[in-house]
Amino acid sequence: MKKFFFGKGFLKLIILIVLSGYIFVSFTGGDPLSAITKSNNDHGKDIYIRYCMACHQSDGSGVPGLYPPVISSNWQEENIDFLIEVTLYGLSGEVDVDGEIYDNVMPANTYLTNNQVAAVLNYIGKELNNRKLNVNPADVEAVRGQNR
């Protein structure tokens, strides 16, 4: 019976792969599969940080006179389709948010996927407003379909 032998090169490759994973986990402080297994809420937070936080601030309070808050505002009572439309297509002109007038441009975010829009709106609802929004990608697709 012939023995199956991989050789020293193969062993070195296996050791390199294992060490690379160990180094990744050590430096990131996390699970090497974390990007794959992130919860929808974590994904929403990432989207918020990347695309929304510069104007609406980390806590969602906005900048008085410039950028409206996304927390504790009368806009949170709007229907989900309206919130999706604003997220996707932006907004310009005067708007009244809790009695304060804002007149700045919110850019369109049509490049975001349906999953990303749903995730960021659910994050804003849950984490910044202690209110569970239930936006799903199908809701976003329906709004996109109405505006094509």
Jot down its keywords.
single chain, 148 residues, Cytochrome Bc1 Complex, Chain D, domain 2, two-stranded antiparallel ribbon, mainly alpha
The first-level CATH class is given as Mainly Alpha
Query: Could you give the count of β-strands?
Result: 2
* Mean pLDDT across every amino acid position: 79
Contiguous helical run count: 7
Q: Let me know the CATH homologous superfamily.
A: Cytochrome c-like domain
Which spans of ≥5 residues are poorly predicted at pLDDT below 50?
22-37
How many domain regions? 1
Element pattern in H and E:
HHHHHEEHH
CATH topology name, in short, is Cytochrome Bc1 Complex, Chain D, domain 2
Protein structure class: mainly alpha
Determine the fraction of residues in helical runs and give it as a percent range. 40-55%
Largest sheet: 2 strands, antiparallel
Reading side by side through the largest sheet, how are the strands ordered? 1-2
Tell me, briefly, the overall form.
globular
Strand percentage, roughly? under 5%
Radius of gyration: 22 Å
CATH architecture: Orthogonal Bundle
